[in-house]
């Protein structure tokens, strides 16, 4: 009977040896750690998946304008009202820009120089200021001596109609009012500018 009692007591001794000093098992704590590890992995993955879905929806639902250019009317910083539809028969270079946009500054001089060279040849340049403040916008125009018509795109209506994703973006619109060419990002060379102009000259 003594031997049998010893054999029966051994498992209890083993279990006691595996317990910490306070007598509380560590298994639940280990499981909790694993649960939190899973949470830290799953939550970022869900966030990335939702972000990718949103980006896909944006790209498919907000395409840039093509074909006939959306009409718009705006008031320039000098108080002149201009409607795109009134410029039929002329080529139009429509540039979306902002004073806070560094790439816009890279093309500002070229845009003004080309306007000066083309304005007697049936080409009109228009600038729409995007998500900007008027004092900064006017200072930008003064800095680069921009003389072609520019004004704010109020409530970003034209930007939404044209589906722009940022600035600068430039649309070359022919005499029939159709978008013939576009440049996403700054126009960096006369050759790149000529590519668009060649498609819209009257």
Using the coordinates above, name the CATH class of the largest domain: Alpha Beta
Shape: elongated
Q: Strand order within the widest sheet?
A: 5-4-3-6-7
Name the structural class: alpha/beta
CATH topology category name of the largest domain: Glutaredoxin
What is the overall number of helices? 6
The ordered H/E elements are HHEEEHEHEHEEH
Describe what you observe in this structure:
The chain has 202 residues and is of the alpha/beta class. It has 2 domains: 60 residues; 125 residues, Glutaredoxin (3-Layer(aba) Sandwich). Helix content is 46%, strand content 17%. The protein has a 5-stranded mixed beta sheet, with helices on one face. Strands 1-2 form a two-stranded antiparallel sheet. A hairpin with a 5-residue loop joins strand 1 and strand 2. The chain is elongated and about 80 Å long. The N and C termini lie far apart (115 Å).
Topology:
Layout: H1 2-18, H2 27-61, E1 73-75, E2 81-83, E3 91-97, H3 102-118, E4 123-129, H4 134-143, E5 150-152, H5 157-162, E6 169-173, E7 179-184, H6 190-197
Parallel strand pairs: 3-4, 4-5
Antiparallel strand pairs: 1-2, 3-6, 6-7
Primary descriptors:
202 residues, alpha/beta, Glutaredoxin, 7 strands, disordered N terminus
In short:
The chain is an alpha/beta fold and 202 residues long.
